[in-house]
From TrEMBL:
Residues 1-33 are annotated as: Disordered. InterPro entries: TDBD. The lineage of its organism: Eukaryota, Viridiplantae, Streptophyta, Embryophyta, Tracheophyta. This is TDBD domain-containing protein. GO terms for biological process: positive regulation of transcription by RNA polymerase II. It is found in: Nucleus. Keywords: Nucleus.
C-alpha cells in the first residue's frame, strides 16, 4: 500500500467512526415517561410530598396530585392542584424551569428523578421507581402503569426484534 492509499483508508475510518453514534448504534427503545409532565400524569407519584425551594425564601410544600401539585400555601391549603409554573408563583418565584426547584423528601428534584429513571435499565426500573423519591408512591397507579409499560415493551420487542432489547 502506498502513502496515498493509506491516507485514503485513514479518512474512511475517521468518517465511519464519526457517523457511528447516529447510524451504527440504535438507541434502545424505552417507553418510560420522557419528561416530568408525563411522569406525573401516570399517577404513580400521586400523594408524594414535594417542596419548592428557592434561596432567600421560605420553602413551599406541596403534594403531587393528578397532573399537578396540591399547593400548601396559606391561600390554597392543599385544596387546589396547580401546574409547576403556578406552584412556583405561589412560592413567590418565577423561573423558566420550575421542575429544577421542586424537590422530593430525599433532596432530589423532580427533574433529576426523571433523568435518573430514564437512565435506569429496565430490569431495575420497577424497583428504582419505588425508592427514587424517598417517599411511598401510589401503588395502584404504579401497578396500572407497570402493566401498560410491560405491554408497550412487548410491542417494542415485536417491532425491533428480541435481540435489541435483552429483557
Ligand atoms: Zn397556593
Amino acid at each position: 500500500m502506498n502513502a496515498s492509499q493509506a491516507g485514503k483508508q485513514k479518512i474512511q475510518i475517521v468518517a465511519k467512526t464519526k457517523s457511528e453514534p447516529k447510524q451504527g448504534r440504535k438507541e434502545a427503545p424505552n417507553s418510560f415517561p420522557s419528561n416530568v409532565r408525563s411522569l406525573i400524569a401516570t399517577g404513580m407519584l400521586d400523594g408524594v410530598p414535594v417542596k419548592y425551594v428557592a434561596l432567600s425564601r421560605e420553602e413551599l410544600r406541596g403534594i403531587i396530585k393528578g397532573s399537578g401539585y396540591l399547593c400548601g400555601c396559606q391561600t390554597c391549603n392543599y385544596s387546589k392542584a396547580l401546574n409547576a409554573y403556578e406552584f412556583e408563583r405561589h412560592a413567590g418565584c418565577k423561573t423558566k424551569h420550575p421542575n429544577n426547584h421542586i424537590y422530593f423528601e430525599n433532596g432530589k428534584t423532580i427533574y433529576q428523578i426523571v433523568q435518573e429513571l430514564r437512565s435506569t435499565s429496565e430490569t431495575l426500573l420497577f424497583d428504582a421507581i419505588q425508592t427514587v423519591t424517598g417517599s411511598p408512591i401510589n401503588q395502584k397507579a404504579f401497578r396500572i402503569w407497570k402493566e401498560s409499560f410491560q405491554a408497550a415493551t412487548r410491542e417494542l420487542q415485536r417491532i425491533y426484534g428480541k435481540e435489541e432489547l435483552n429483557i
